[in-house]
Write a structure and sequence with these properties.
Structural class: alpha/beta
CATH class of the largest domain: Alpha Beta
Helix content: 10-25%
Radius of gyration: 18 Å
Number of helices: 4
CATH architecture of the largest domain: 3-Layer(aba) Sandwich
CATH superfamily of the largest domain: Nucleotide-binding domain of ferredoxin-NADP reductase (FNR) module
Length: 243
């Protein structure tokens, strides 16, 4: 039976909008159906269906849950703003309190290994919401290394964490983060912790290139790596099977 036909949709209403950087917008929604959602791990994501024009089907895109409050039935999602090139960015750019979306999920998530002494978190701008949620969930004393590519210094975010956190920023300048090859180069020259648990996400080609480097050049076990291609340069609504 097609699981898509059985997908439960939860209506949610926008209550608050905040620009956390010039190109990253945080939108908070609430809904009665959100109270019981099984959100228990950082990095879980929802499919968000945006309002459609008359005669058109709503278009859905996968977005990471940045924060979740089951008691309030509230969820925060961070959107990268890149103009009107897609339904998600277009909607986020024009969203106002009172707007309504439909949510399906949650899915996936990052299960933090309590025995791992080090965490290695890698991604482009689209991966920042998950990276931030993961570092917030890390226990005290864990060494956490973040490698992230954003457009410029204005897009760098502060991460709250109990872990011993080190953040390495890479700037894509006029090109889209994740497409420049700079993050791959940074990883090749980086001093990495021994036997880390790894989370890696962002542009599909970048993810696969870094994954290959970690597996074959660094000798990190595949079982220690969670990777996902969130998007693919030049393609709409792409998501790797890993996700």
């Amino acid at each position: 039976m097609n699981s898509r036909k059985n997908r439960t949709l939860h209506q949610a209403t926008v209550t608050h909008i905040e620009d956390i950087t010039p190109r990253m917008r945080r939108i908070r929604v609430i809904g009665g159906g959100l109270h019981a959602l099984p959100v228990a791990m950082p990095g879980q994501w929802m499919k968000i269906f945006f309002p459609a024009q008359p005669g058109e089907k709503p278009q859905g895109r996968a977005y990471t849950i940045r924060r979740f409050d089951s008691g309030a039935g509230a969820m925060e999602v961070d959107f990268v703003l890149h103009g009107d090139t897609g339904p998600a960015s277009r909607w986020a750019g024009m969203a106002r309190p009172g707007d309504i979306v439909q949510l399906a999920g949650p899915r996936a998530g990052y299960r933090i290994d309590p025995l791992a002494s080090a965490q290695l978190l890698i991604g482009d701008a689209t991966a920042l919401p998950a990276i931030a949620a993961i570092v917030e969930a890390l226990p005290e004393g864990v060494a956490a290394h973040v490698f992230a590519e954003v457009a410029d210094q204005a897009e760098e975010q502060h991460f709250a964490s109990r872990a011993n956190l080190t953040v390495h920023w890479v700037h894509s300048d006029t090109e889209a983060p994740g497409t420049t090859g700079k993050l791959e180069l940074a990883m090749q020259h980086a001093t990495l912790p021994s036997s880390p648990q790894v989370w890696l996400a962002g542009e599909s080609f970048m993810v696969r290139a870094i994954l290959t480097h970690l597996l074959f050049d660094r000798g990190i076990l595949h079982t220690s790596i969670d990777s996902a291609g969130y998007w693919k340069f030049g393609a709409a609504d792409h998501r790797d099977a890993d996700a």
